[in-house]
Specification:
Helix 7 packs antiparallel against helix 14. A hairpin with a 5-residue loop joins strand 13 and strand 14. The strands form four sheets. This protein has an eight-stranded antiparallel sheet, covered by helices on one side. It has a seven-stranded antiparallel sheet with strand order 5-6-7-8-12-13-14, with helices on one face. A five-stranded parallel sheet has the order 17-16-18-19-20, sandwiched between helices. 38% of the residues lie in helices and 22% in strands. It is built from 18 helices and 25 strands. The chain is of the alpha/beta class. The structure holds fructose -6-phosphate.
Length: 602
């Protein structure tokens, strides 16, 4: 999604803005731009495509100034063209915007009635034109911006830069994140504090409805009621190691390889008194509810689906899982004894946030599992648990997925101990196996070379199926999603048993089928599904802790693990297969086309 940066500095801001935009690249974008003030005059450079285009443009045609704003745009209203790129500018104001203005058609009509015409298809242009109109009506800068902001509906984070106002940035937040950074004698604003790495670690999170006037020495924040408020100043240790590739070619590869270490550190944390105290309120909530509703999007949704099996198997709690974007479409059958569990890496995903608010309004308890613990979901949930994945930059989620599963497993085990639903010896054995997961994950990474050679062949096919049964079914969905999003090969994940109900018609010698089949009580049934594939000359890639029958095209050997935790281990080959296929095909692995890391629009 779009990324915003803004700066009132002491040195030339263009190179700093560009560097900060680089740190926001992970959010996904298709054009970028910056605007600065030089001798009070607005200057602007924009380019379609990657930041390298903008940076080349700035070399050919530099801009100067100590105050500026910058933006990476992920197209929503209007294609990725130069005219639609941000900053948008009218005569004396430049604006960058993240989010969607829902009433932009209304605003367009109102402006048109005033003979003010738009030149682009974007919703952002209406903001710029409206602010310019208010300025021309004689309002001061802050009032013009405030009046503009008050007439917007939807989700937005905004920064305004005004001609002639070298020491002023006006910013506003409604729904989309916005963070102020406090320098020595500089002031920054950004969508994500990661953009401030190396600039400042002193930050203030704006809250929904906040409007702020920034200068180099003073920051005034007003809430949605117009009262001046103080928001806490926090220290965020932004470790630059977490924002570089650490010797890997891509962030995704670094993040895949980090998993054993990160899972080990998370388990260590769970076992400290602090970790246990963190978990206690969540265990209370889950243990006392009658039903669970697990909600997330994409990969986070698949983590919910895996956990759904775990809660039912080990804690005896009935579960529904719903993909967040469909949540409001269901006629909900929940009551106040249903607990909503929301899983999200970013904690900002608009669909998940909207589902959370919906359940909260219905009087249900809300528990979230998040990687970004300063996010909106963390603030709005009754209780939130950190997943301890560290900064994840690759758009395709890898370590956040395994950490979500780990955190959910930790919760399920604690609830199982409390409710004593399952045999407690079995739960103790699972606890021991839980501690082995980092070592097992490390052993799973040993399959990397074999997977690389399979990936070299997979790139020749147009479509790939992934099948799994039980808790491996969501892993089949995850394997297919990973492959699609970064290699652009069509892939479909399905429950093994469903193959014969339609999709088997697609299987012939041009169809690789990834069969996720740990040797558990479902193994025999998984083999029957692969026999169905074999009989149609489908190319089976067996991912298993056993060699399987004859006639298998390729095998990915994994260590044995208790079947309950197999989804955590089997995530590794799914990630590696997608990664190597994408590298082989030469796609943009860390920033796949059309995708954004943090999806802040519904
Ligand atoms: C896929 C992926 C996405 C996210 C989804 C939810 O690799 O990363 O499917 O899982 O957009 O994002 P969060 O977890 O931030 O809510």
């Amino acid at each position: 999604m779009c990324g915003i940066v803004g700066m009132l500095g002491q040195n030339e801001v263009a190179p700093i803005l560009l560097e900060s935009l680089r740190r926001l690249e992970y959010r996904g974008y298709d054009s970028a731009g910056i605007a600065t003030l030089r001798d009070g005059k607005l200057q602007r450079r924009r380019a379609v495509g990657k930041l390298s285009e903008l940076s080349d443009l700035l070399v050919r045609n530099p801009i100067q100034g100590l105050s500026g704003i910058g933006h990476t745009r992920w197209a929503t209203h209007g294609p990725a063209t130069l005219e639609n790129s941000h900053p948008h500018q009218s005569r004396s104001v430049a604006v960058v915007h993240n989010g969607i203005v829902e009433n932009h058609l209304e605003l367009r009509a109102q402006l048109s009635a005033l003979q003010i015409e738009h030149k682009t298809e974007t919703d952002t242009e209406s903001i710029t034109l409206l602010c310019q109109y208010h300025l021309e009506q004689g309002l001061a800068h802050a009032e013009a911006a405030l009046k503009t902001v008050r007439s917007l509906r939807g989700a937005f984070a905004l920064a305004f830069l005004f001609e002639g106002e070298e020491d002023c940035l006006i910013v506003a937040r409604q729904g989309s994140p916005l963070v102020i950074g406090h320098g020595q004698s500089e002031t920054y604003v950004t969508s994500d504090s990661i953009a401030l790495t190396g600039l400042t670690d002193r930050i203030t999170y704006l809250q929904d409805g906040d409007f702020a006037c920034l200068s180099r020495r003073k920051i005034s924040i007003f809430n949605c009621g117009g009262e001046e408020v103080s928001r806490p100043l926090e220290r965020r240790n932004i470790d630059s190691a977490s924002t570089d590739k650490g010797g890997h070619k891509h962030f995704m590869s670094k993040e895949i390889y980090e998993q054993p270490k990160i899972l080990a550190a998370a388990i260590e944390r769970y076992e400290t008194s602090g970790g246990m105290a963190e978990l206690r309120p969540a265990v209370e909530m889950v243990s006392s509810c009658r039903r669970l509703e697990l909600v997330g999007c994409g990969t986070a949704h698949f983590a919910c689906q895996v956990a759904g099996y775990w809660f039912e198997w080990l804690a005896g709690i009935p579960v529904s899982t719903t993909v967040a974007s469909e949540f409001s479409c269901r006629k909900q059958a929940f009551d106040e004894q249903t607990l909503g569990i929301f899983v999200s890496q970013s904690g900002e995903t608009a669909d998940t946030l909207s589902a959370l608010r919906h359940m909260k309004n219905a009087g249900c308890g809300t528990l979230s599992l998040l990687n970004v613990t300063s996010s909106t979901m963390a603030r709005e949930s009754d209780v939130s648990l950190p997943i301890h994945a560290g900064v994840e930059i690759g758009v395709a989620s890898t370590k956040a997925f395994t950490c979500q599963l780990l955190a959910l497993a930790n919760l399920v085990l604690a609830v199982a101990e409390r409710r004593r639903y399952a045999d407690q010896d079995r739960i103790s054995r699972l606890r021991k196996e839980f501690r082995r997961l980092p070592a097992l994950t490390s052993a799973a990474l040993a399959a990397d070379d074999g997977i690389k050679s399979i990936a070299g062949e997979l790139g020749k096919f147009v479509s790939v199926l992934f099948i799994g049964r039980g808790a491996m079914y969501p892993l089949a969905l995850e394997g297919a999603l990973k492959l699609k999003e970064i290699s652009y090969i069509h892939a479909e994940g399905l429950a093994s048993g469903e193959l014969k109900h339609g999709t088997l018609a697609l299987v012939d010698d041009k169809m690789p089928v990834v069969v996720l089949a740990p040797q558990d009580q479902l193994y025999a049934k998984s083999l029957s599904s692969s026999e169905e594939v074999k009989a149609r000359r489908g190319k089976i890639i067996l991912v298993s802790d056993t060699t399987g029958p004859t006639g298998i095209w390729r095998t990915v050997p994994l260590p044995s693990v208790d079947p309950v935790f197999a989804p955590i281990l089997y995530a590794i080959p799914m990630q590696l297969l997608a990664y190597h296929t994408a590298v082989h095909l030469g796609t943009d692995v860390d920033q796949p086309r059309n995708l954004a890391k943090s999806v802040t629009v519904e």
